[in-house]
Amino acid sequence: MQENYSIKNIKKNTSYLEVEWNDGQKSKFNYLWLRDNCPTAHDKDSRHRMFNILKVSTEINAKKYNINNQGKLEIEWSEGEHISYYDVKWLRENCYTLKNKKKYNSPYTLWDSSLQENLDSIKIDHDEILNSDRGLIKWLELLHHQGIAIVKNAPTGEKSALPLLNKISHTRETFFKTPFEVINIPKPNNSAYTAHALRNHMDLPWFENPPGYQFLHCLINDAEGGESSAVDAFAVADYLRKNENEIFETLVNTPLRFRDKDYTQVAHRSFYAPAITLTKDGDYNDIRFSVATMDALDCHPDIMEKVYKAHHRFGNLLHDDKFQIKFKLEKGDIFSFNNRRLLHGRTAYNPNSGHRHLQGYYMDRDEIIGRLSFLKK
Ligand code: OGA
Ligand code: ZN
Fold it and tell me: Where in the chain do CATH 3.30.2020.30 domains reside?
């Protein structure tokens, strides 16, 4: 990116200044936007905006303007007896005219079952992450872009994944406790705490904000069975968007009801959300899919058939061998993934044939993206 931006020409309009840059680009800077972003608007310590835009009228405009001898854009405002001095580089980097012209690039690398042949590409060594920012960045990049990573050679003591997770941030607490113990227990309050197979699912879809990431730390996996599966539900959504658009639209536009059914709880938690949500750029935001915890739906009778058929099709593709990968977790693996993008599952295991114990952790998505962004700068 070019660093030495300078302003060639400025023209005054009714509601904005039009700036022409030395590289020929043109930007519109609205007066209210400029006044609101005056560098003096923010407290130098808290960095919060102290200036209150509601104190000026919506007719505010630039009475005088010029590039001063320090190279700053200087504006004398039509009201409030205030002069603002803008750093030209800041204006260019924060220019909303040019930002809105840029083509959106998705951070997501969608994958299907062909990842199976390349599983090494999502593996990373525990100590490499623990001992270097480069390793930590690589892990975070896998999590953010691919949505999946398998950490190898972690210690296998109880809670021993925590020092690694804390290299990113704090974990997200839930009533399942941190970590949650994925073992076969009598009178299970969750189907994960059995030896049964788990269909591909996300965890906790009945929360308003389900955990963004999940980490399943394998302490021991000696029993017969208990093989893992994972599917990139963004890739499946993308397939539907391109090939079966009516189904895709139904999944985006119909809120489904999810409900926690945990008998140990003294709270009823439930939430409505569509199976697929999109971002402001039309990219994939999150997925809600769990056969186990989708509640009795109460959509309008005119659309129930359509909604169930879309759910049925989506669910079948989410279990299709064209899309999913399979692997068996080994002692010392930490299966790490975006819980609102990937679905995960396992085959049944025989609890009499050996031990199986995973410890699970959750983390909010903000922590992953925020930490990666900080480390990359
Ligand atoms: C879970 C889960 C998978 C496994 O605990 O949420 O899906 O392999 N576990 O036991
Ligand atoms: Zn799960």
Answer: 7-99
Distances (CA, A) of 329 to 192, 312, 358: 15, 29, 9
Alpha carbon nearest to ligand 1 atom 8, residue: 346
Give the CATH H-level superfamily of domain 113-376.
Answer: Clavaminate synthase-like (3.60.130.10)
Tell me how far the alpha carbon of residue 77 lies from the centroid of ligand 2, in angstroms: 57
Residues 135-189 have pLDDT tens digits of 999 999 999 999 999 999 999 999 999 999 999 999 999 999 999 999 999 999 9
Closest protein CA for atom 5 of ligand 1 = 192
190 lines ligand 1 (CB under 6 A): no
182 lines ligand 1 (CB under 6 A): yes
Q: For 77-131, how does the pLDDT look when each residue is reduced to its tens digit (9 = 90+)?
A: 999 999 999 999 999 999 999 999 999 999 999 999 999 999 999 999 999 999 9
- Interval between CA 360 and ligand 2 midpoint (Å): 9
Residue 297 identity: L
267 CA distance to ligand 1 middle (Å): 23
Helices (H), the chain: 31-36, 88-93, 96-99, 126-131, 133-141, 162-165, 233-243, 245-253, 304-317, 365-376
Please list the residue range(s) of the chain that carry CATH number 3.60.130.10.
Answer: 113-376
CATH topology (fold) of 7-99 = NE0471 N-terminal domain-like (3.30.2020)
pTM, full prediction: 0.95
Ligand 2 centroid, distance to 200 Cα (angstroms): 8
